[in-house]
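Troubleshooting: if your tokenizer reports a length mismatch, compare your output against this known-good record of 697 residues.
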Amino acid sequence: MTGCPHLARIEIGEEPQEALSFETMLEILPVGAMTCDLATFRIDYANPCSIRLLHSIRDTLGIDPETIVGTSIDVFHKRPGHQRDLLTDPSRLPHKARIPFGKEWLDLHIHALPDSKGRPTRALLVWAVATAEVAKEQEEYRLLRMIDDMPVAVMTVDAADFRISYLNETSKRTLSQIEDLLPVPSDRLLGESIDVFHKTPDHQRRLLSDPRNLPHRTRIKLGPEVLDLQVSAVTGTGGEYIGPMLTWSVITKQVAAEARIQQLAHYDTLTGLANRTTFREHLGAALARPDNRLALLFIDLDGFKIVNDTYGHLVGDALLGRVANRLREHCGEPGILVSRLSGDEFAILVPEANEAGAAALAERLVAALSQPFLLHEDERRLRVGASIGIAVSPGHGTEPEALLSRADIALYAAKAAGKRTFRIFAPDLETRIRENVRIEGKLRHALEDKTGLFLFFQPIVDIRTRIVTAREGLIRWHHPVRGWISPGEFIPLAEECGLIEDLGAWVLDRACRDAAGWTDGARVAVNVSARQLGTGTLAPTILDALVRSGLSPDRLEIEVTETALLNDEVDSLRDLRQIRDMGVRVALDDFGTGYSSLAHLRKFQFDKIKIDGTFVRDATTRPNCAAIVGVVADLGRRLGVTTVAEGVETVEHLDLVRAEGCTEVQGYLLGRPQPSAADAALVAALSAGPAALGQAA
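Known-good structure output:
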């Protein structure tokens, strides 16, 4: 009820307890509580305390207290009209009054009780006998009843002999649950020394004997259980210290939950290794020490994405767990912190380490992580590798961000060196990264301004008729300072910095426009990066290029490598089917160098298979390479698919691939990549140098 202090939420200590229901609260109130119907002014409820109080004043009451329910409220008043006026006017409620009742005085609090529609249909009367002796008894009873009904365990201790002098009902129930941990039965604790709860009773006694130590809160262990203990001082009316009151509870599960939360906050749930947060905290603390010699190893797994995509995330997660175990095995020295930063990235902090020691550890880890992993669930043996970047403090930095950045640069260098190796940071690596950033900026500028980018075309020839059936478009870029930059350098950079889709769109648009002007009707072939597949944007880009140029879809060939299909294979094949549905031809490039060549031929109907040039170039000297060329040519014939032999550079190469049954050939013997007629003069001038460029202008 609003304004009624007796119906407020009960709070014990610092934590609010569950609110009692209205009906339960009336039943346990240590003061009288009655309700009456405002239509009849008759009492329809009286709580147990009301009945007891009425017995104490029954001579004045004039009726049996047990029959109070159903009696008119007028029984308490000499002026019932005044009382009824008060009850029927909600604006006058709540109302507080002290009224004479025979020899006694009654304290009365009246509150309106609304129905479900908010209309006051009943009244609540909270009352007590105000006579001094009765008031004292009521106060004592109220305190005892309140403590007994508390939902937390409460006990009091005699300050003189430290014996337990009181236990409330919750204490008794809780103690019975942990009775096997106590030296005496729970029902015999009253009067026992408080020492039963402590292994260090002297400390406990000193604490309880001095009120200046209170209030005090602590947690104590009792066998496997944890108790939360709050001690408060009980004082008399004159302020003198009477003794301590202890409120306590068993919080073993709460402590376990807190430990679990702490675990989740600081450790990786999959591997149990320290997580990124813990790693950063340890790195910052280590570098803040005066002698901050340490090594930081960044580890990235090679080939993990292929495993994860091929076998699924459950197998991938199991593999990460095995990797974590192997890292623990090889990093067991005291002080070394092994952490999982994200995905398949790990980091190791090695205290008191120099470059030589860090390199030795990295070499062991590369070798260890290259060994196969056995997944016992299905006896599957999987192989991955690891690339590691190393930065050492103080030589490579004394601030966390600097050391992290340089370890990452070293990792980038290890991957660029062919993976499954390690690199230690060196200033020239940072210079190279900065140069890549500058190249990225120039490439972005070239795409925006459409300057410096060219498309060269290399013919693909029918081996029998020597007719050019298609020309492969190959992008070339002339850097304003460095000159011609190899596609092997700027295309991976474009993939990393997110420019590959823009670059691919430019190539498609230019290839289709140029091919539309060819008089021989040859097809144009365009390579597609792995980053362009599986995103759902490739088909719309191709359609846009065809519409802009007016080129017939059957004159466009899209070449994809087997490696490109390994990334998001399902989505990649979906994109290729959309392209085929448009009438565009699809070729499988670099056949034989991927991981699952035949599987790709089973999953998708390619129009053309291009045999990787490494097999062709070695075929004249290595019979096994010649056999591979022949097998692929025969496979193409059986599937009704065109086979193109790449890398044909000599007459011997040409004779061999013709003998093995290849359909088409491509290579320097048949023609080198050349710019379009429109670009030929500018390309020649750029290649000749600034002077020739000025003449061309």
